[in-house]
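A.,

Following up on our hallway conversation. Structure tokens first:
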């Protein structure tokens, strides 16, 4: 498996510094948080996009994914949501990223679960054709209204398109009560990559160093290894939302070492 980290852990950091962190600490790739407050976003022009792609190539670091914020199950008109996804897909194509991340984002105060599922599936199915033309895959993260694999599969089962898959966020499936073996069994035919992280408890989700909290990272890696899965583990350290959290650069080296130990132990 290859290792990446998300720029959510270093909000606003210039791209050359992000790539320097990756190469210095032995990470193979980077997941770019794609938002207007970040250096890389859908408003970049053609020359800026070419510069970003060249920076990754020059550093020898892979651009794993663009982590967008489109909420595909949210109530409302389809077209603004589809426009967001198309813009994210176009950016990924221009930068050479194989994946884009979207959220479910259903509002179960005003939607039934069935309505949220159908809305997300309809939009993802439409966007899948553009994704297919560009050679980029849309990944639905286990998150918010659909935090477990079982929840996500209600949507993915309706879509049934190879360009729409799953992003396994280990915190959300655990908070939803799923065991890693259950999550993998459900998502494996659709799995793009896996986001790892660690937290203190159900009540306190402040990000911690990998291995310092309660999330079943060893079990997740063991399940993936046992089934011969050879994709990406991406450390999503949510510093952006927790100012008091330890700065990520201080944790990158021990984090990589911890993941490497888990991989060796499960080999």
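Then the amino acids I'd put at each of the 267 positions:
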């Amino acid at each position: 498996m290859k290792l990446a980290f998300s720029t959510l852990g270093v909000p606003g950091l210039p791209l050359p510094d992000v790539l320097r962190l990756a190469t210095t600490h032995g990470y193979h790739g980077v997941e770019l948080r794609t938002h207007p407050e970040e250096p890389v976003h859908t408003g970049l022009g053609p020359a800026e996009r070419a510069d970003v792609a060249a920076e990754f190539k020059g550093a020898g670091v892979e651009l794993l994914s663009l982590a967008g914020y489109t909420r595909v199950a949210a109530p409302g008109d389809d077209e603004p949501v589809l426009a967001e996804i198309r813009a994210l897909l176009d950016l990924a194509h221009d930068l050479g990223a194989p994946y884009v991340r979207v959220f479910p984002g259903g509002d179960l105060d005003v939607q039934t679960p069935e309505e949220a599922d159908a809305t997300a599936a309809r939009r993802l199915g439409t966007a899948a054709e553009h994704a297919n033309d560009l050679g980029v895959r849309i990944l639905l993260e286990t998150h918010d209204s659909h935090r477990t694999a079982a929840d996500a599969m209600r949507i993915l089962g309706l879509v049934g398109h190879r360009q729409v898959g799953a992003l396994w966020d280990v915190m959300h499936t655990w908070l939803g009560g799923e065991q890693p073996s259950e999550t993998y069994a459900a998502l494996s035919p659709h799995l793009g990559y896996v986001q790892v992280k660690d937290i203190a408890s159900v009540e306190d989700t402040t990000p911690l160093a990998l291995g310092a909290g309660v999330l079943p990272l060893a079990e997740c890696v063991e399940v993936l290894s046992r089934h011969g899965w050879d994709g990406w583990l991406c450390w999503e350290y949510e510093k952006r939302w927790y100012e008091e959290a330890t700065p990520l650069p201080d944790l990158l080296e021990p984090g990589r070492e911890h993941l490497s130990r888990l991989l060796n132990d499960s080999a």
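Residues 113-134 form the longest helix (22 residues). Curious whether your intuition agrees with the design.

B.
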